[in-house]
Amino acid sequence: MTNPILLTGFAPFDGEAVNPSWEAVLRLAGEDIDGHRVAIVQLPVSFGDTLRLLRQAIAEVRPGLVLCVGQAGGRSRISLERVAINLQDARIPDNAGAQPIDAAVEPDGPAAYFSSLPLKAMLRELTDAGIPAEISHSAGTYVCNHVFYGLMHLLRDEPAMRGGFLHVPYVPEQAVRHPGAPSLALEYVVQAVRVALRAALATRVDLRISGGSEC
Ligand code: PCA
Where does the pLDDT of residue 1 fall: very low under 50, low under 70, confident under 90, or very high at 90 and above? Predict the structure, then answer.
């Protein structure tokens, strides 16, 4: 028996009717990806509750790979997040009304963690599949970064588990509420997550291609 994959998506927030991260994750529930079954869980957009649920899901599923997915409205590409920072600085209240400002995720934790997924190989496979993708060096300072940081903090004690975070653009039905905002059809988002997972499973030593950018 091979290890399952744990895939998480978020509930809608900020007045949206859907969250494409959850819509995509939902469509991959139970799928067999190269011999690894996909287990899914929805995480709340809540600083106070979300890591408890993530921790619970990891304890139940005991995955070999954890991929958390979130919405990044305004971005035009699938963002493979490289860095989680130990900071919460919320522009808007979360779904439970909390709005931490300049607070640590883990008061005794390091300033940042890197993803333990082979992001370059994932980028290459996504690009080869015709899906717009990039390496991102900021997952923001809201609930997604909070979950990404919390995940990597947890995985310090789980050497057999690899994990990381992926941000996805709006889907077209959302973009109508945000004139000019880019979007990606849900079928591409679902395929992107599938391709990213397959690349992560197949790669132990990452490629050395550039994923950097100038400022
Ligand atoms: N995106 C938000 C939180 C939930 C989500 O899908 C973020 O980028 O922090």
Answer: low
